[in-house]
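Hey, can you fold this?
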Amino acid sequence: MFTFAQKRLCSEVVVGSSIVRILKNEHAFKRCPHLQKISTSSKRNTVMPAWVIDKYGSNEVLRFNSNTMFPILNYPNEVIIKVHATSINPIDVNMRNGYGSVSLNMSRDPMKMKSSASEFPLILGRDVSGVVLECGLSVKYFKPGDRVWAAISPWKQGTMAEFVVASGNEISLIPKSLSDTQAASLPFAALTAWTALVNSCGLNKKTCPGKRVLIVGASGGVGTVAIQLLKAWGAHVTAVCSIDAQSLVKDLGADDVIDYQAGDLEEQLKSRQLFDAILDNVGGTTENLAPLFLKPWSGAAFVTLVTPFLYNNDRLGIADGMMRTGITLGSKVMKNLCKGIHYRWAFFTSSGPALDEIGELVEAGKIRPVINKVLSFSEVPKAFQMMEEGHARGKTVIRVDK
C-alpha cells in the first residue's frame, strides 16, 4: 500500500472530456497497478438515475428520474464521484419542504439572482461515499479509483443520484475500516458536530481534557458523533435524551445520562456541577439553560444548531432577513455576555481536512458509525418518511449502487 503523500506523485493531463492519470515515473506506476483498470466518463455518459424534486412540498414531490443530466466538471478543483451510498439528514427533509431556498438559491448563482423555481429539478442528499471517477486539473491529492467520503454543501446538487460533483476541498479518503454504508452515515453529522465543538466552542484535543459538556438532543446523528468526539478528547459528557436511547448514548461513552421525560430538565440539572459548554440540538427554550448551568466568566459557551437565519431569509427576503437575524443574535449575545456566558450559533461547514482528522479517530476506534437501517435506492421516499417520524436511533443509509 502507498501513503497519502505518495499519491501526490500523480499528475494530470486532459484527454478529450476525460482526465487520465499519469505517474511521474515507472516505479510509481507499478506501485499503483489499479490505475490501469480505471475507466473515466465520456461524452456518451449524458444521463443518470436520480431522485429529484420539481417543486417544494411533502414526500409526494419526490420523483425518480432515470434521465437526470449527468454532472460535469465546471471548475478545475472539482471531482466526479460514483456514488455507492448516501444517508438522510434532517436538512434533506427541510430542503424538500423549501426551507432555506432563498439563501441557497443566492449561493447557487448570486450574480444572476435566480428565481425561486430555477433550481429545479433539484437533487437532495448531502452525505456520500463512493469512488472518484474523474478529476479536475487542479486536484492534486486524489485520483480516479480513490474511495472517498464527503458532505456536499447544501447549495449544490445532492447525492441521491448515481454520480455527484464535489470540490476537492470537500472530500477525504474513506477510513479503511469502514464499508461504504458505514462511511455514508457519518460526514454531514460529523462535520456539523465538528463545526459546533471546534469552531464555536473552541474545544479540541488540546483544550478539551477535563471539560464538562452538556449535550441536549444527544441521541440524534449530530449528538452521537459529538459524544464520541468529546470522549476521544478527554471531556466529561452529560447527555440528554429519552429513556429508550439511554443505552445507546452510554455505549458511545456518555458519563452521565438524563432522561428529559423523567421530569423537569432544569430540576434534574440542579444536582449536577456547572458545565464548560452546552451543545443544543433541540432549540426552543433550551437556551434558558445557559445562564443557569454554565460556569460564568470562565469562557463557557452555549452553542445551538437551531437558528432562525434561513427561516428569516425565507420569510422576509435576504436584506430584511439578515437584518432581523443580526438583531436577534446581537441581543442574545449581549444578554448572555452580561452574565459571563458566550452565546453562539453553529452551522454545518463542509471540510475535507476536518474529515481527515475525523477519519483518524475512526481508524483509532474512537468514533464509530451508528446505523439504524440500510435501504435500497428505490426506497428513498421511505427514508424521508422515517426521518419525519423521528426518534430513529442512528442514521438511515441508502445504497445507491447495485
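Oh, and this one too while you're at it.
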Amino acid sequence: MSEIVRLTLVSHAMTDAMAAGRFPLDEALNALGHRQLDGLDLGPADTALCGPETRTRETAELLGLSALVDARLADLDHGQWRGLNLDSVQPGELTRWLTEPDSCPHGGESVVALIARVRGWLADISRTPGRIVAITHPAVIRAVILNALDAPPKSFWRIDIAPASCTALHHRGMVWTLRSAVTGQ
C-alpha cells in the first residue's frame, strides 16, 4: 500500500488590492485579512510551505507556521497589469485573458503556464508522505484543483477561492483526489 500525502491549501487572507478589485502587487494583509485568520486552526503539519509574496508569508506567520518559501507557489504573474484596477485594462485584452487560457496580453504568465508550473509542484510533493500545509494564492489553488480533476484550463475562472479558505486533497498511488473545499470566515 502506498503512503498518503495529505495536502491542505490555504488561500492567503484579504489584502487592499483584493478588496479594491486591483491586480496584486507584493502587498501585506489588511485589517480584515488579520481578522479572517483569527481562530483558524490547521492542526499539525509535517511540512509547511508558502509562496514568496508578503501576503502568503504573513498569512503563514499569523497561523503560527514556520513555512518554507517555495517559488512554485507564487501567484500568477500579471505582468504589466500589476497594481491596476480591472477597469484600467483594455476590455478586449481582459476578455481575451479571461477566455483564452493560453494568452497573456499583460506580458506575464498565462493560465496554461501556471497550471503546468503547479503540475510540476504537485508531482514533486506527491513523493513527500505526510501532512503538507501550503499557503498560496487563489490562482494557484484553482490550478491545483484543475490538475487534480484533470479539468480543462478553460474551467479556471469557474472556481471561486475565498480569502483565508482551505482546500484539502490527498494523494495515494498515482492520482490526487480533491477531498473537500472548506471556505474560511
